[in-house]
Protein backbone atom coordinates (compact mmCIF):
# COMPACT_ATOMS: atom_id res chain seq x y z
CA UNK A 1 0.00 0.00 0.00
CA UNK A 2 2.84 2.41 0.88
CA UNK A 3 4.59 1.77 -2.43
CA UNK A 4 1.27 2.24 -4.22
CA UNK A 5 0.72 5.59 -2.47
CA UNK A 6 4.18 6.77 -3.47
CA UNK A 7 3.60 5.68 -7.07
CA UNK A 8 0.29 7.53 -7.17
CA UNK A 9 1.94 10.63 -5.68
CA UNK A 10 4.70 10.60 -8.29
CA UNK A 11 2.17 10.19 -11.08
CA UNK A 12 0.12 13.08 -9.71
CA UNK A 13 3.13 15.42 -9.55
CA UNK A 14 4.26 14.52 -13.07
CA UNK A 15 0.82 14.88 -14.68
CA UNK A 16 0.28 18.24 -12.95
CA UNK A 17 3.17 19.63 -14.98
CA UNK A 18 3.55 20.17 -18.69
CA UNK A 19 6.39 19.02 -20.89
CA UNK A 20 8.03 21.79 -22.88
CA UNK A 21 11.13 22.22 -25.00
CA UNK A 22 13.72 24.86 -24.17
CA UNK A 23 15.39 27.06 -26.82
CA UNK A 24 18.29 24.59 -26.96
CA UNK A 25 16.00 21.58 -27.43
CA UNK A 26 16.14 20.36 -23.84
CA UNK A 27 13.01 18.75 -22.34
CA UNK A 28 11.56 20.78 -19.47
CA UNK A 29 8.84 20.25 -16.91
CA UNK A 30 6.97 23.50 -16.38
CA UNK A 31 3.47 24.69 -15.56
CA UNK A 32 3.30 24.84 -11.77
CA UNK A 33 2.27 28.48 -12.25
CA UNK A 34 0.86 30.32 -15.25
CA UNK A 35 2.84 32.83 -17.31
CA UNK A 36 0.56 35.55 -15.97
CA UNK A 37 1.42 34.52 -12.40
CA UNK A 38 5.12 34.44 -13.29
CA UNK A 39 4.89 37.95 -14.73
CA UNK A 40 3.12 39.18 -11.60
CA UNK A 41 5.75 37.55 -9.39
CA UNK A 42 8.49 39.17 -11.47
CA UNK A 43 6.87 42.59 -11.24
CA UNK A 44 6.40 42.23 -7.48
CA UNK A 45 10.00 41.12 -6.93
CA UNK A 46 11.28 43.99 -9.08
CA UNK A 47 9.19 46.54 -7.20
CA UNK A 48 10.46 45.16 -3.92
CA UNK A 49 14.07 45.36 -5.10
CA UNK A 50 13.58 49.01 -6.10
CA UNK A 51 12.00 49.82 -2.75
CA UNK A 52 14.78 48.20 -0.71
CA UNK A 53 17.86 49.14 -2.74
CA UNK A 54 19.13 52.48 -3.87
CA UNK A 55 18.36 53.07 -7.53
CA UNK A 56 20.94 55.05 -9.48
CA UNK A 57 19.80 58.32 -11.05
CA UNK A 58 22.91 58.55 -13.23
CA UNK A 59 21.33 59.39 -16.60
CA UNK A 60 24.33 58.29 -18.66
CA UNK A 61 24.66 54.95 -16.89
CA UNK A 62 20.93 54.24 -17.16
CA UNK A 63 20.92 55.12 -20.86
CA UNK A 64 23.92 52.82 -21.41
CA UNK A 65 22.23 49.83 -19.81
CA UNK A 66 18.87 50.55 -21.47
CA UNK A 67 20.58 50.76 -24.86
CA UNK A 68 22.09 47.29 -24.45
CA UNK A 69 18.80 45.85 -23.14
CA UNK A 70 16.86 47.33 -26.07
CA UNK A 71 19.29 45.94 -28.64
CA UNK A 72 19.20 42.47 -27.03
CA UNK A 73 15.42 42.29 -26.58
CA UNK A 74 14.88 43.39 -30.17
CA UNK A 75 16.21 39.96 -31.17
CA UNK A 76 13.82 37.99 -28.95
CA UNK A 77 11.15 35.72 -30.40
CA UNK A 78 7.59 37.00 -30.81
CA UNK A 79 5.83 37.22 -27.48
CA UNK A 80 8.96 38.24 -25.59
CA UNK A 81 9.50 41.62 -27.23
CA UNK A 82 7.76 43.54 -24.49
CA UNK A 83 8.80 46.95 -23.20
CA UNK A 84 11.48 45.75 -20.82
CA UNK A 85 11.90 47.85 -17.68
CA UNK A 86 15.45 48.61 -16.53
CA UNK A 87 16.84 49.63 -13.15
CA UNK A 88 20.45 50.28 -12.15
CA UNK A 89 21.14 49.66 -8.47
CA UNK A 90 23.93 51.33 -6.52
CA UNK A 91 25.49 48.11 -5.31
CA UNK A 92 29.18 47.20 -5.50
CA UNK A 93 28.56 43.50 -6.13
CA UNK A 94 29.10 42.46 -9.74
CA UNK A 95 25.62 41.16 -10.39
CA UNK A 96 22.62 41.50 -12.68
CA UNK A 97 19.29 39.76 -13.09
CA UNK A 98 16.24 39.52 -15.33
CA UNK A 99 12.73 38.56 -14.29
CA UNK A 100 9.55 37.38 -15.98
CA UNK A 101 7.37 40.27 -17.01
CA UNK A 102 10.22 42.08 -18.73
CA UNK A 103 12.38 43.34 -15.87
CA UNK A 104 16.17 43.81 -15.87
CA UNK A 105 18.25 44.91 -12.90
CA UNK A 106 21.96 45.73 -13.05
CA UNK A 107 24.24 46.55 -10.12
CA UNK A 108 26.81 49.29 -10.61
CA UNK A 109 29.41 46.73 -9.52
CA UNK A 110 28.94 44.88 -12.81
CA UNK A 111 30.91 47.59 -14.56
CA UNK A 112 34.06 46.47 -12.72
CA UNK A 113 34.02 43.26 -14.79
CA UNK A 114 31.97 44.25 -17.85
CA UNK A 115 34.45 46.67 -19.37
CA UNK A 116 32.62 47.52 -22.60
CA UNK A 117 29.23 47.24 -24.29
CA UNK A 118 29.96 43.79 -25.71
CA UNK A 119 30.79 42.41 -22.27
CA UNK A 120 27.72 44.05 -20.75
CA UNK A 121 25.67 42.48 -23.55
CA UNK A 122 27.06 39.08 -22.54
CA UNK A 123 25.78 39.66 -18.99
CA UNK A 124 22.38 40.97 -20.02
CA UNK A 125 21.94 38.37 -22.75
CA UNK A 126 22.68 35.63 -20.21
CA UNK A 127 20.15 36.98 -17.71
CA UNK A 128 17.43 37.45 -20.33
CA UNK A 129 18.30 33.95 -21.55
CA UNK A 130 17.06 32.62 -18.21
CA UNK A 131 13.69 34.31 -18.74
CA UNK A 132 13.06 33.22 -22.34
CA UNK A 133 14.19 29.69 -21.49
CA UNK A 134 11.47 29.60 -18.80
CA UNK A 135 13.97 28.76 -16.08
CA UNK A 136 11.93 30.47 -13.36
CA UNK A 137 8.90 28.35 -14.25
CA UNK A 138 11.07 25.23 -14.39
CA UNK A 139 12.63 25.84 -10.99
CA UNK A 140 9.28 26.53 -9.33
CA UNK A 141 7.78 23.42 -10.89
CA UNK A 142 10.67 21.20 -9.82
CA UNK A 143 10.82 22.62 -6.32
CA UNK A 144 7.10 22.15 -5.79
CA UNK A 145 7.25 18.61 -7.10
CA UNK A 146 10.25 17.77 -4.93
CA UNK A 147 8.63 19.23 -1.82
CA UNK A 148 5.46 17.23 -2.44
CA UNK A 149 7.32 13.96 -2.90
CA UNK A 150 9.55 14.56 0.15
CA UNK A 151 6.51 15.25 2.30
CA UNK A 152 4.78 12.09 1.15
CA UNK A 153 7.95 10.03 1.57
CA UNK A 154 8.45 11.33 5.13
CA UNK A 155 4.83 10.51 5.98
CA UNK A 156 5.25 6.95 4.70
CA UNK A 157 8.46 6.49 6.73
CA UNK A 158 6.75 8.00 9.76
CA UNK A 159 3.82 5.61 9.53
CA UNK A 160 6.22 2.70 9.72
CA UNK A 161 8.99 3.94 12.04
CA UNK A 162 7.65 6.95 13.95
CA UNK A 163 7.91 10.75 13.80
CA UNK A 164 11.65 10.83 14.58
CA UNK A 165 12.41 8.71 11.56
CA UNK A 166 10.04 10.80 9.46
CA UNK A 167 11.83 14.03 10.40
CA UNK A 168 15.24 12.49 9.70
CA UNK A 169 14.04 11.16 6.36
CA UNK A 170 12.71 14.60 5.42
CA UNK A 171 15.99 16.32 6.29
CA UNK A 172 18.17 13.77 4.50
CA UNK A 173 15.84 13.69 1.54
CA UNK A 174 15.92 17.48 1.32
CA UNK A 175 19.72 17.52 1.37
CA UNK A 176 19.89 14.82 -1.29
CA UNK A 177 17.36 16.58 -3.50
CA UNK A 178 19.26 19.87 -3.22
CA UNK A 179 22.62 18.27 -4.04
CA UNK A 180 21.69 15.78 -6.73
CA UNK A 181 18.53 17.20 -8.27
CA UNK A 182 18.00 20.93 -7.82
CA UNK A 183 21.64 22.08 -7.97
CA UNK A 184 22.52 20.12 -11.12
CA UNK A 185 19.44 21.63 -12.71
CA UNK A 186 20.74 25.09 -11.84
CA UNK A 187 24.06 24.32 -13.54
CA UNK A 188 22.14 23.10 -16.59
CA UNK A 189 20.19 26.34 -16.63
CA UNK A 190 23.33 28.46 -16.30
CA UNK A 191 24.92 26.72 -19.28
CA UNK A 192 21.72 27.08 -21.29
CA UNK A 193 21.51 30.79 -20.45
CA UNK A 194 25.09 31.14 -21.72
CA UNK A 195 24.10 29.51 -25.02
CA UNK A 196 20.94 31.58 -25.49
CA UNK A 197 22.48 34.84 -24.28
CA UNK A 198 25.61 34.60 -26.39
CA UNK A 199 23.51 33.97 -29.50
CA UNK A 200 21.17 36.87 -28.70
CA UNK A 201 24.15 39.19 -28.29
CA UNK A 202 25.65 38.06 -31.61
CA UNK A 203 22.33 38.59 -33.42
CA UNK A 204 22.16 42.09 -31.95
CA UNK A 205 25.62 42.92 -33.29
CA UNK A 206 27.63 42.50 -30.09
CA UNK A 207 30.90 40.61 -30.36
CA UNK A 208 30.32 37.08 -28.97
CA UNK A 209 34.04 36.67 -28.27
CA UNK A 210 33.77 39.29 -25.53
CA UNK A 211 31.79 36.80 -23.40
CA UNK A 212 35.11 35.02 -22.86
CA UNK A 213 36.76 38.24 -21.66
CA UNK A 214 33.81 38.93 -19.38
CA UNK A 215 34.02 35.59 -17.60
CA UNK A 216 37.80 35.85 -17.38
CA UNK A 217 37.23 39.14 -15.57
CA UNK A 218 34.60 37.45 -13.41
CA UNK A 219 36.94 34.61 -12.51
CA UNK A 220 39.75 37.03 -11.67
CA UNK A 221 37.44 39.04 -9.41
CA UNK A 222 35.87 36.02 -7.73
CA UNK A 223 36.89 34.53 -4.41
CA UNK A 224 37.21 30.93 -3.29
CA UNK A 225 34.59 28.72 -4.91
CA UNK A 226 32.69 25.74 -3.57
CA UNK A 227 33.34 22.37 -5.24
CA UNK A 228 31.73 22.22 -8.68
CA UNK A 229 29.28 19.50 -7.64
CA UNK A 230 27.96 21.78 -4.88
CA UNK A 231 27.82 24.90 -7.02
CA UNK A 232 24.89 26.32 -8.94
CA UNK A 233 27.30 27.58 -11.61
CA UNK A 234 29.56 25.68 -14.00
CA UNK A 235 33.28 25.56 -13.33
CA UNK A 236 34.78 28.87 -14.60
CA UNK A 237 37.50 27.29 -16.72
CA UNK A 238 35.01 24.92 -18.38
CA UNK A 239 32.59 27.77 -18.92
CA UNK A 240 35.24 29.97 -20.52
CA UNK A 241 36.27 27.13 -22.82
CA UNK A 242 32.69 26.54 -23.93
CA UNK A 243 32.08 30.26 -24.49
CA UNK A 244 35.23 30.49 -26.60
CA UNK A 245 34.29 27.51 -28.75
CA UNK A 246 30.76 28.81 -29.21
CA UNK A 247 32.02 32.29 -30.10
CA UNK A 248 33.80 30.80 -33.09
CA UNK A 249 30.59 29.29 -34.44
CA UNK A 250 28.69 32.54 -33.81
CA UNK A 251 31.08 34.79 -35.72
CA UNK A 252 29.13 34.41 -39.01
CA UNK A 253 25.95 35.39 -37.11
CA UNK A 254 27.72 38.42 -35.66
CA UNK A 255 29.20 39.44 -39.01
CA UNK A 256 25.82 39.09 -40.74
CA UNK A 257 24.21 41.23 -38.04
CA UNK A 258 26.80 43.95 -38.53
CA UNK A 259 26.42 43.80 -42.28
CA UNK A 260 22.65 44.20 -41.83
CA UNK A 261 23.12 47.41 -39.87
CA UNK A 262 23.06 46.05 -36.33
CA UNK A 263 25.96 48.13 -35.02
CA UNK A 264 25.25 48.94 -31.36
CA UNK A 265 26.57 52.26 -30.12
CA UNK A 266 25.68 52.08 -26.45
CA UNK A 267 28.93 53.20 -24.88
Automatic annotation (TrEMBL):
<dbReference type="InterPro" id="IPR001915">
    <property type="entry name" value="Peptidase_M48"/>
</dbReference>
<feature type="domain" description="Peptidase M48">
    <location>
        <begin position="61"/>
        <end position="246"/>
    </location>
</feature>
<keyword id="KW-0482">Metalloprotease</keyword>
<dbReference type="InterPro" id="IPR051156">
    <property type="entry name" value="Mito/Outer_Membr_Metalloprot"/>
</dbReference>
<keyword id="KW-0378">Hydrolase</keyword>
<feature type="signal peptide">
    <location>
        <begin position="1"/>
        <end position="18"/>
    </location>
</feature>
<dbReference type="Pfam" id="PF01435">
    <property type="entry name" value="Peptidase_M48"/>
</dbReference>
<keyword id="KW-0862">Zinc</keyword>
<keyword id="KW-0732">Signal</keyword>
<keyword id="KW-0645">Protease</keyword>
<comment type="similarity">
    <text>Belongs to the peptidase M48 family.</text>
</comment>
<keyword id="KW-0479">Metal-binding</keyword>
<protein>
    <submittedName>
        <fullName>M48 family metallopeptidase</fullName>
    </submittedName>
</protein>
Amino acid sequence: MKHLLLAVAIATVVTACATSTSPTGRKQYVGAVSQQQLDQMGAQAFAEAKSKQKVSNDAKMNAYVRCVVNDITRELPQGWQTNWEVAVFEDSSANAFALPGGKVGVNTGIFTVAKNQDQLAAVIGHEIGHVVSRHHDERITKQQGTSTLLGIGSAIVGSAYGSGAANAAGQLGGAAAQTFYLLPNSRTQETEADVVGQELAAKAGFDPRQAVNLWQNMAAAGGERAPTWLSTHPDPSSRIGELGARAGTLMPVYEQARASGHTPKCG
